[in-house]
Structure formats: C-alpha cells, structure tokens
Fold:
Amino acid sequence: MAKALLGHVGGADLRLVDEVRRLRSRVRDLEAELARVTAANEALVASVHVEDDIRMLTLDDQPALT
Structure:
C-alpha cells in the first residue's frame, strides 16, 4: 500500500530513464567541450607575447577617466 501511495507501482518510468540517460550524455559532451575550449584558450594565452612597455600600460593604477 505504501508503494502505491508513493507512485512506485509498475517500476521505473522508461521515459524518465531515457531522459536521464540523454541528459547524462549531454553533460559528458559539455564537459569534454569545456575541457577542449579551456585547453585551446590556455594555448592561445601562452602564445601571446606582449612587449614590456605595453604590459606596463596595463598595470597602471590610475583611473582611465577622471
């Protein structure tokens, strides 16, 4: 009786199982894409060489607008 009240009659809903499987697959795909994009970004950052005088301009603590 308790199982019937909680909605456990008939076992797992196959549509829900398929949806969970699809979402887990999508999460794995997105995690792989994030890892790929992060690696590409790190490679781009490492390949950029900024001259010291340009770098000093970006380290200035003065406000841009006064």
Residues 11-58 form one domain. The chain has one domain: 11-58. The radius of gyration is 26 Å.
